[in-house]
Amino acid sequence: MKLYIVTVNLIVLLSLFLIVTNVHSKSPEPSKGDDQFTDLLKVKVDEISDTYVIINVTGSSDFQDYPFDRLNLTGKIDKVENKKHIWIPVDEGFQFNVTKSIHNNKTQSISNLIKIDNLQPNQLYRFKIVGKYGNVIYVDTEPEHVDITTKPLAPKGTVNKQISLSLEGTNVKTYFVQVDKVVKRNRLETVINSTISSSHSDYITLDNLKSGTRYSIKLWYLDNNKKTSAIKTIDYKA
Fold this sequence. Notes:
The chain has 1 helix and 16 strands. The protein has one helix at about 1-25; strands spanning about 40-50, 55-60, 60-65, 65-80, 85-90, 95-105, 110-115, 125-135, 135-140, 145-150, 160-165, 170-185, 185-195, 205-210, 215-225, 230-235. Strands 1, 2, 3, 4, 5, 6, 7, 8, 9 and 10 form a 10-stranded mixed beta sheet that branches. The protein has a 4-stranded antiparallel beta sheet with strand order 13-12-15-16, with no helix packed on it. It has a two-stranded antiparallel sheet with strand order 11-14. The relative contact order is 0.16. The model is unreliable at about 1-10 and about 15-40 (pLDDT under 50).
């Protein structure tokens, strides 16, 4: 009888141990009422100028059944005080606009092209972008923040110009832009060689082109079937 009681007690203790172990081994489900941070959104810098930058944010169109709502952005600038670099928050000054927004229901994904204007030339910025889903969930991007140094202004005495090109094509995966400076009739010097995502805006702006200089601009694309388009060549004098 005593042996039977001891055996039953051991079984009960073993059962309790397994239940407790199983409970602690499971990750707790995130509650919808709390702010959640994850890496559902990806950030890629598409273009950097002296006074603006263009950033592409892609990711999931919903999280825990909450639909994507909007993007929030905060910025900091790098300053030197007492020979030390510190990040100072910037609440005003720059403008933040979504220039192109794509919502793909088939892949349940979103793509937002944002342009940040009114930046200082040759300045290091740190931008943090957070996505908002529904009214309660905030999602960090990957990487968590983006460090960007704007281009310097052209030296005094020189006049720079810019040209905007339309990005056209069917079933485009990637655009390619190559800008060659015409040094002599049969001699070219490449000054810009860019690869651009199809989620970019419908145009690209080429700046810092020296006034009076002739350029040869080539534009082509690769489609989703891995076929390369014909090269479009533009002769341009800034």
